[in-house]
Amino acid sequence: MEPVVIDGSILEGGGQTLRISSALSAILGVPIRIHSIRAGRSTPGLRPQHLTGLNLIKDLTNGSLEGGNIGSTEITLRPSQISGGEFSVDTKTAGSITLIVQAILPCLLFAGKKSVIKMKGGTNVEMSPPLDYFTDVFSSVAKRFGISFSCKLIKRGFYPKGCGEVDLTVEPVKRLSCVTLDQPQTLKCVNGVSFVAGTIPIRVANEMAHSATLKIHDSLGNIPVNIHQFKEIKAFGNGAALILSCETADGMLLGGTGLGKPRNAANQVGQEAADELIESCFRKVCLDQYAQDQVIIFMALAEGISKVLVGPPTLHTRTAIHVTSQLTGVKFDIIDLKTQPETFIIECKGMGFVNTRL
Question: Cα(342)–Cα(135) distance, rounded to whole angstroms?
Fold first, then answer.
């Protein structure tokens, strides 16, 4: 079978195209050729986290990978059947563990047995969802599709060396359920974690939490806010982060994150995380900006019509829709709700993909 050709420079022009297309290639059993990989980035081509994910998908499917080198701008992936089981991967850098999980989670759902993946890399790094967001906010959305997974934190890892460790466990499914998440949400409370690691003093965690709390109360009123502040002992290197989640009356979770950097004041990190959260809360949406693009592949594979209420579709979301539609043939509609400014419904009728390995 001739590979489906995918342009990696389209829209977002980063790793999103790579992650979604390789996952769908494995699930559908369709070979792909991706060119112009990460053409929109200052350093184009494969980075360690992308190559680690691709090699893992190759191994999971007992397939073949051409062009699998750091810096490569073109690859050809030819998958076979998804096996599942136990695997270990190591980016040997601070490459994001959660971005690798984004690529392999859909594949593992359609394996023939439970999978346990031992992963090493970065758990809280720039340009990627922190592990805490993935295990808290995103997992609550995933459950709506019938997805069951866990990410056990062994050790946190930060830029530049990484060395974090996470055990990912995924139960396969026969098929995914469609979701209807289209009703405006009423806010209930805000929870979160604010932590430091290594030589960074605990006062930094306290300041991040304090500034976030003040910002939330100033914008959202007297909503209950509970942010746990602590010094992380299960960590390699120095790091600081704040992860917030707002629970709604319907049980949805909206997230906001902030990552400590050498030249960023602690109160600035807290305000950045709060601002992200507040933006979603004001719109009363069901999914925040980080969950938007992650659900697209599941909407396409699910059985039935899915609808999700979101803010303005991000470039990552539009890229996910473009690539997913190209490989599955599923059509997505983005409906602008004129009655609610900058609020949209993303809708699609899924293909009802069935896991024949179970």
Answer: 28
Tell me the two tokens of residue 152.
């056990």
Q: Token digits for 259?
A: 């990552």
User: What tens digit of pLDDT does each residue of 287-337 get?
Assistant: 999 999 999 999 999 999 999 999 999 999 999 999 999 999 999 999 999
How many Cβ atoms are within 10 Å of 239's Cβ, its own excluded? Answer: 25
pTM of the model: 0.96
d(CA 37, CA 35): 5
Residues 174, 179, 184: CA angle, nearest 5 degrees = 165
Q: Please confirm, yes or no, whether 316 is among the known catalytic residues.
A: yes
Report which DSSP code applies to 9.
Answer: T
Stated length of the chain: 358
How many Å apart are CA 23 and CA 56, to the nearest integer?
11
Catalytic residue chosen out of the listed positions 35, 228, 316, 322: 316
CA dist 105 and 341 (Å) reads 33
Distance (Å, rounded) from C-alpha 236 to C-alpha 215?
A: 31
Q: Using CA atoms, how far apart are residues 254 and 291, in angstroms rounded to an integer?
A: 9
Give the type of residue at 132. Answer: D
